[in-house]
Design goal:
homodimer; mainly alpha; 51% helix
Chain lengths: 82, 82
């Protein structure tokens, strides 16, 4: 995966999940240091409609598999706990 | 929430999510240091059928709101990253 591309693509995610992957809003999960495969399957689930959320579904809708791999790899690479 | 009760109740979760909340299986999320509100809403979603998973749905089915609050508080209290 391309961490730089993931970082660029994840800019919009930072609004809720935090620039360091520790979410600003208690209802939303921290992503930093999370398992890359879990992050990938979650974003795909939102993109493909398996999981539904008024915010995450549109966020994920335009992403390619490569985008998802890069975004997931980027957040997984951040230190857990920030 | 009662962390001791949460720890006791979470023993079965450790099989996949790890005794320290860092999951053993790459497909399953780390829970250590996750947002308590997100953990609660996730477990409830599995219990109440909003989220469906062949393993998590039965795991969550028998839990009371108090169980869920205790389990969520316990995993949230563990150091992120293990």
């Amino acid at each position: 995966a391309d961490l730089q591309a993931g970082k660029a693509k994840s800019a919009v995610c930072a609004a809720c999940h935090g620039a360091n992957g520790i979410s600003i809003i208690p209802d939303y999960p921290n992503l930093a240091g999370q398992k890359v495969k879990y992050l990938q399957s979650s974003i795909k689930a939102y993109r493909d409609g398996e999981r539904k959320n008024p915010i995450m579904s549109p966020m994920a809708s335009g992403l390619s598999d490569a985008d998802i791999a890069n975004i997931a790899a980027y957040f997984a690479s951040l230190p857990a706990g920030g």
